[in-house]
Amino acid sequence: MNAAEELVEDVDLLVVGGGKAGKTLAMDTARAGGRVVMVERGMIGGTCINVACIPTKTLVTSARLARRAGSAESLGLRLGTPRVDLELLRAHKDGVVSDMVELNHRQFLDSGMDFVLGTARFVAERTVEIHLNDGGRRVVRGTDVVINTGTTPHIAAIPGLAEAEPLTSESIMDLRRVPDRLLVLGGGYVGLEFAHMFAAFGSRVTVLERGPHLLRSEDRDIATALAEYLREDGVELIADVTVKEVVRERQTVRVLLEDGRTLTADDILAATGRDPVTRDLGLEAAGVRTDDRGFVRVDDRLATDAPHTWAVGDVAGSPQFTHVSLDDYRIVKANIAGGARSTAGRLVPWNLFTDPELARVGLTEEQARATGRPIRVAKLPVKAIPRARTLRDTRGLWKAVVDRDTEQILGAALLGPESAEVLSVVQTAMWAEMPFTRLRDGMIAHPTMAEGLNALFASWVD
């Protein structure tokens, strides 16, 4: 009997993939009395909880503590030289992850949804055949279908790289060892977080970036400042370089560069982007089209080319952040109910959890100037903020771009301690279309890092 001839189960909502957007919509719909099936291959709670945001930021906490302990004498304490205990480190990370997985699983069941562990493939419009992880098959058709299958680490087409079995942002989380020497391919957000983290754990880390500078989407002054701090913490940075070949020789990896240099390491981390999980979904049977990179094509309502079929999160080409996926959930929930909510004009914040951390929202200076509008630029060294001095953590640079005519904030990049938290204040002001003077003249508690916004918006450099 083929799938088309099998008994088809009809539900109100079918969610393929259990990431942030899909699982939240599935639980909401089920709690409201809808018949819901959510299919997930194995990561209960999605990528963020299992192999991305949560475990990485858990390890970032450990790395920051190790770095702080190493400089404790500046705070009047003698703690000795910190040492990484790999078993304890892995237990710390696994404990946080397992607690959140268990919480998610319980929430799934309590919501009343039908949570299915298995692999789904479309066999018709809004219809999937599910091969269950514990054996057997089911065929399910949804009145509405949401595709939420996410992405996986991309392995660049560099000769020998795949054969060298590189670490990825997911596999490096297994923490089987802390390599003495680690090469990182890619000077973007993922590569720099891991580079700084493993340098704190004791690895000798080298980052290879093919562009002229790190974080190519950021202004040069911000990227340069962060690069300086990474070097201070022992990370070697090589920019404007092309990898010619990667060779695995037993326990050593050799990387041959186009300029003739050869680098060796114990491990190599491929941090060169992510690929959408769409290849084996059978999307053509569902009438769903993808772009030339494999991401599901959606409009600004997150609707695909097929009726009543939506895509959310990374697989839809949305910015690859969990907070964006959560907003995708809000958009699709409204639109399934007959609304007209859109992704247009979303103000998306970005956070890089190095030490110091970098938080950005809105336009960079370069992007703002490209619009042709008259702008003002403010900069403030973090050492000018009293709270930073009490923390003995004065590395960093804050920057903001303002429309000269309207006095509204166009964007901000905050490099320094607790920047991710302070950024929310700036983002709120931008949502409210406040003039920058509200942050310049507003009463903000002392001593806090947010208080630095008073000084930032009085520190014009133009």
By CATH's scheme, which homologous superfamily of the largest domain applies? FAD/NAD(P)-binding domain
Largest beta sheet, briefly? 5 strands, mixed, barrel
When the domains are counted, the total is 3
| Poorly predicted runs of 5 or more residues | none
Main structural class: alpha/beta
Strand order of the largest sheet: 1-2-3-4-5
Q: Give me the count of strands.
A: 20
- Overall mean pLDDT stands at 96
Alpha carbon gap, first and last residue: 73 Å
The CATH topology assignment of the largest domain is FAD/NAD(P)-binding domain
The fraction of residues in strands falls at 25-35%
- CATH architecture tag of the largest domain: 3-Layer(bba) Sandwich
| Highest-level CATH class of the largest domain | Alpha Beta
User: Can you tell me the overall shape?
Assistant: globular
The portion of residues assigned to helices is 25-40%
Please tell me how large the radius of gyration is.
24 Å
Q: How large is the count of helical segments?
A: 13
Give a verbal description of the structure:
By secondary structure, the chain is an alpha/beta fold. It has three domains: 3-152 and 275-336, FAD/NAD(P)-binding domain (3-Layer(bba) Sandwich); 171-272, 3-Layer(bba) Sandwich (FAD/NAD(P)-binding domain), CATH 3.50.50; 356-456, Enolase-like, domain 1, CATH 3.30.390. The protein is 30% helix and 26% strand. It contains 13 helices and 20 strands. The strands form five sheets. Strands 1-2-3-4-5 form a five-stranded mixed barrel. Helix 5 (189-200) links the parallel strand 7 and strand 8 (204-209). Helix 1 runs parallel beside helix 8 and helix 3 packs antiparallel against helix 4 (86-111). The model has no long low-confidence stretch (mean pLDDT 96).
